[in-house]
Structures are given as C-alpha cells and as structure tokens.
Amino acid sequence: MYACISVSMDTNDLISLARSNSSYAEDLQLMQNTYLAAEQSSLKSPASKSSAQALPISGCIAKARDHIEHEIKSLGLSKSVSKSDNTDRDEQLCRTVENLKKRVEDFEGRLQDLEKGKSLSKHPDGVPSKSASHSGSTKSKREQPKWTPPQNDNVAKLRLYNSLTRQKEIFVPQHGNQVLWYSCGPTVYDSSHMGHARSYISFDILRRVMTDYFGYNILYCMNITDIDDKIIRRARQNFLIGEYKKTSTDLSKVFCDLQDALMPFKQKCQDAADPDKKKMLEKLVSQAETGYTAIKEQHDKGLVKDIRGTISNFVDVCKDPLAEWLDAKSGDSVTDNSIFFELPRLWENEYFKDMDSLNVSPPDVLTRVTEYVPEIVEFVQKIIANGYAYESRGSVYFSVGEFDTADKHFYARLVPEAVGDQKALQEGEGDLSAQVSDKRSPNDFALWKASKPGEPAWESPWGMGRPGWHVECSVMASCVLGSSMDIHTGGVDLKFPHHDNELAQSEAYYDNTDWVRYFLHSGHLTIQGCKMSKSLKNFITIKDALKRNSARQLRIAFLLHSWKDTLDYSDNTMQDAVQYEKFLNEFFLSVKNIIRGKSFVDPKDFLKWTQDEVTLNNTFTQQQQNVHNAMCDNVDTRTVLDHIRQLVTSANSYVAKKRGGTDLNSWLLRNIAKYVTKIMRVFGAIVGGSADAIGFPLGSGQDTFDLEGTVMPYLTAFADFREGVRKIAREHKVSGVLKMCDEVRDDVLPELGVRLEDHETGTVVKLVDKEELLKEREEKKRIEEEKRRKKEQAALKKAKLEAEKVAKSKIPPSEMFLSKTDEYSAFDEKGFPIKTKDGEELSKGQIKKLKKLYDAQEKLHQTYLSKSKA
Questions:
Q1: pTM of this prediction?
Q2: Of 83, 350, 536, 683, which is least packed with CB atoms within 10 Å of its CB?
Q3: 116: enclosing H helix or E strand
C-alpha cells in the first residue's frame, strides 16, 4: 500500500487509499511513520559533499524502507480497529494527509539536494532541515507551514428552560446581540410582598447575568397593571368604607350593619372550595366577631366615650365583611373615575421604593394600561377583522375555537392540558365579570369589557368599556417590542390562562406563531411550606422582610435556589443565606488584610510560585470553568455558589497552610477575591463601590467613596501603636493597661464599624458593617455569659458533692444502716444488717455487697477523724 503513495495524489485519493485498508486508525499512524522514517533515514548519510554525491537516491530509499519495516515491527500494530464513517475523524485524516503531502514535497527536495551533493543545514531544534537554496523546483520552495487551529468541541452555550418546550434550549437572539425582553409587572392595589420579590429578584438576576456576564444588549420592558377587576373593587370599597366612617355616628347602627354584613360573608366562607381561601375567610369572620364582642361589651357598660374614634377603629377591625356589604349595596353609585386611578398610583410608588430597596434594576421601558387604551381598541379591532374575535352586547370576546382550528395556530401552547379548566378561566376573567355571559363558548375570554355602573370606562366602537386583563400585556409589549420578542417572563401562576391567552391573541393579531421565542417562568414562593397569596392575605411584605434581613441576604437566599423552582421562605432558608454571606465576607476581609500595603507595581511584591500556588491556581482555573458551565446551564446560580464556596475554601486552606507568613502569594489571592467579587456583582449582591474594590461595600454601597482606603492608614497606625502598648504592658505585667486595650477592641471600635483581631503574628484590622459587629459583640457576650453560667453551675455542683461527701464521712459505719428500717429489721453489735425487713436472713450475696459498703464507709470515716485531729 505504502509504495503506491505519491505526492501527485490529491487529498481525496489519499483518504480513499487509507480507508480501503482494514485498519483505519493504523493507516494514519503508519503513513506518518513512513515519511518520518524515510526522512530520518535519508538524513543519516555522511554530511560531506563527496560522500553525499556517492550515495544514490536508491540507497536512501533502501535505507528508508529498512527503517520503515523496523518501525512497523517495533510498534507491534494489529488489524483490529474497524472502519469508521465518523465525520470528525475524516476531518482529522484530511489534516493529516495535507501534512503528509508537505512532508513528501520536503523529502523529495532533500533527496534532490543529496543528489546534487549539497549539504544539509541544521534546524534550530536540532533536526536537520532542507537547504534554503532550492531554486529549481516550486515544490522545494521554503514556505510557512499550514497552521492547525486548536479543537474545542466542548464550548458551553447558554441554555434557558423554555416553558414553550418544557426543556432547556440553546438561547439564540433574533437580532444578533440585541435581546427584546418583556416582563409581566405587578397589579398595584396593595403592598408588594415576598411573592413579588421572588419573581422580580429572580428576573433581575437573569437580566444582570445576560447583560454583565454574557454581554447581551437587552431592551427590558415591564408593565404596570393599573386597571383591572381587583383594582376597581379595592378602590371602590376603600372609597365606600371612608364615606361610611365619615357619616356613621350611631354605634348601635354600626353593630346592626355588621350583623347584616356577616350573613353573606359567612355564606361565602361556607361555599369556598379552596381550603386556603376558606381558612382565610374563617379568620376574618372570627376577627370581626371578636372585635364586635369586645366593643359591644364596653358600649353596654357605658365605657365608650369617643364614639367617632370607636366607630373608626371598629370598622377597621371588621373592614372586609363591611366593605363587601357596602360594595354590594352602593358600589354602582361610584362614578368618579379619579377614585380608580389614585389607588394604583399610590401602590405603584410603593412598589418602586421596594424594588429600589431590593436593588432590583428599573426597566428600560415602563408601560401602564391606562396609557395604552387607544392602542388596545385598535388591537382588538384587527383581531376581529382577522376572524378570531366577536362582539357581544358591548363586549368583545376572543374565539378560542376559531383560533385553535386554524391550520397554523394552537391554543394553550404552555399548558395544553388546562384547556377547559373553568375555574382558572373564570379567575382570569376577573371578579367583576358575569358568571353567565354572552360568550359563544365558555372557553372564550374577554378582550374588551362593557363597563357596568361603578366601573371606569373609555369610548370604543362597541360602547363604553374597559380592556380585558390578558390583552393589556399583548398590546403594550407589541407597541414597544414589535411582532416577535426574544424573552417573556412572569410568575409560574400566570402560565394559564394569562400567558396562554396572551400568546393566542397576539398570534391572532400578527397571524404568526412566534410572538414569544423563550417563555421563562419563576417558581412559587411559599412561607414555611404554605402558599403565599395577596388575595389570601397570607403574605409577608417586602418592608417587613427587610426588617429581618438585608437586601443582600434575601438575594443570596434566592441565588441558593433555582430561579424556576419553588422557594420556601423560612428561618432555615434565611439562615443559610446569612451564613453564606458571612463566609464570603470573612474571606474578603482576610484577603484585604493580606494585600494591604501591597502596590503590585514593586517587583518584590511578586513571589516565585511553589507547588502550593500552582495547585491553588489550577483550582482557580477549574472553578472558573465550572462557574461558566453553570451559568450556561439555565443560569444555575445554586451550582455557581457551590463552586464559589469550593474556591474560597481552597484559598482559605492555602492561607492556613502558609499560616499568614510572608511567602503568601498576595497577587493570586487578590485575583481570586476580585473574581468572586465580580460574580457577586454580576448577581446584584454587590452594588456601588469602585470597579477594583474587593468584597462587600460598607453601608449601602451606593456611592463610590473609598472609605477603606481613606481611614485604613490611620486605623493601621493606631493598631500598631496599641500592639506596642500591649507588648510593654505584658512585659511589665500592667494588667490595667491590657484591660483598657481589650475594652477599646471590644467596646469602642465596634461602635465605629472596626474589628481588631489579635493574633500571635500581630493585630489585624478589618472594616465591617457596624450592625454586624454589634450583633457579633452581643453574640460573644451571650456565649461568654453562657460559659460563665455553666462554670458557676459546675462549681456549685462540685461544692454540693463535696459537702455531701464531708457529711457522709462524719457518719460512723456502725450507724450508716441503722436508719434504713424500711430495708432491714435486725442489726449486729457493729450496726451491720443481718435480716431483711421481712425478718429473713440476708443471703451471702447481700452480705458481701453490704460488707463492701461498710468497709468503704469505715475508711472514709477514719480519713475524716484523722483530718479532724490534725
């Protein structure tokens, strides 16, 4: 086979020749060895001109063949490898053959040189190479060799869990690096709670990662739902309750009104099918009845002096049943549209204050439903024109049947199994929608609702009305992002019917099937395993949550869980987050102390690497790759933090092994700390501060003032002075001075946010958040107090045992059993028991046991007598 290989063959001929043999892989190796052996054999000839001329080409070839045969035998090759059609291996063969062809050209040129008697030059690496004087042949012309690019088929690509396919998909934006993103915003009628935080912190993390880590250019649009059934009902009820407080002067009449209000409210409670909702209504009934009983008792005894104040307080206690009763009686009398706009504006402002407190970035574009009513009317008109909607008594409904039977469309792409779920559909239609309507099918949903008395209204071709809930997002998103967006996000509870209806009506408008490319849904948030819901009044407001934990700790809690899974908000969850924050913070403080005073421009700051540094750097490199892989895997922040923990643990072990010595590689530790800081900044867990800063900034971190760089030189000077004073005080045993040094460390500096740590190698200064230091101090005092208490208890116990022992030693052995008449009935002259309480003789075993006790007491008593005499 090898004798027929010619440089005149093209690549395909050589590939065919190699693959025709029964051993595909061996051929590659043998072809390489053939030309390498021939090359080496030819170059073993004497270097002198005369001998080179005397050596014919045939002799070189003969030598080459001998060397080839020897090479094949030494390899011990077999013909066991089967053929393969693998494309990658074909590509590999192509590259190998091209290389072999160049070797053939080079080899033939060298043989020509030998034929002409030309000497061979030495290659820089010691391998003889062709003379540069070839001029008679283009084949022998010296050219730059072909460069083979490195192969890396394991490059991670960003994959996101797409609810449209229920699996992770490679993320491919439609417009290069531009990402069009729409997120369902809040319905603003009450305080924002941790359920909102679950979605908005999670999506803020995703947005930051895609922008600051992957480098996408994102246009982020979010809506505010400022008009819907919940807002209308709440605004109307708030107005009616306020008017009721103003006009009510008779407490007895208020009592009667409450009884009337409780009757339908209790019936509603009995009819509730949802156990969580039923529990909530029962709680409200109990609260109203308890308040009624307490105030009526005071009223009957004539103890109520401030009637108006008492009525106001009583109405607040019984607000829910009274509000529903008043709304049923007088809700249709509310005609002032401004009433419906004041409430959402109030809570919208509160929402953004909460988001700012949580360090959630504001959207690039904010849309409000009330600002897009004309566009909504136009949108609905086109859907009617496309044949997917119809008007009925002033309302317009989307025809699910018409849409679903169209060839290119499919209804409920997210949750197809939920089609026909009337409970979910009715919740999507809203509390104020009629249970029985003029819809052609119960699966149809409202695009435009005819307004009833007591509801806000806008003009439309179908009469005065207001937008349906689902169409609002479709219109606002389309106005900003167009006919197709890359990402749509929202809570998992919005999948059906809200998001499925959004998809249907938008695709009906554009007559396309790709209005959303990637649908991302955040998981539920529970409170110690129970569902959190604003409508169930079972929620913790963001403001209350921030009283317990910092915004960073809340964010870390979310980072420790997958963004698409259920997160349980509990003490254990938050404790894990607090401990992780503390773990990182201690690492940052340690590194900052190590690199303090290092300029990293002075050559002496760069130390030779030992195996310890190589090992740590290898860990650093591997963990960076692991973090990147986790980022690409659906932005798996939980796994990212696991790898960060492992990296920091390795760095801490390195520092501990070096024991804080001068041979610590500060630059490597600095790079690791900066990397960890960068990742936490990408996640939004670090905000503000300079770009080169390490660790968590002090205070709010909103400004870029370098507090540490400013005050640390003074604190270091003070710490050094204090260390010198302590050294002198220890040498001269001046305990008062040592005590004062401890008081400065333990009591004074923590109030300023400064922690001093006294070590054998010196004092370490760390700037820490003041509140954290004060908590540490209190915890330290608690632990010391617990130790003192246990020590005191142990001392008391020891003293008690000693006293009992002394008291026991005073008793002569002859008296030790005499008081135990409930066990023994007779004793000998030495006071030793001889009969049981029943008058029976003691057994040998009992006597033996009692004798041991008797002898021990005798010894103890003799010791006591000896001490007494002394």
A1: 0.73
A2: 83
A3: helix 87-116
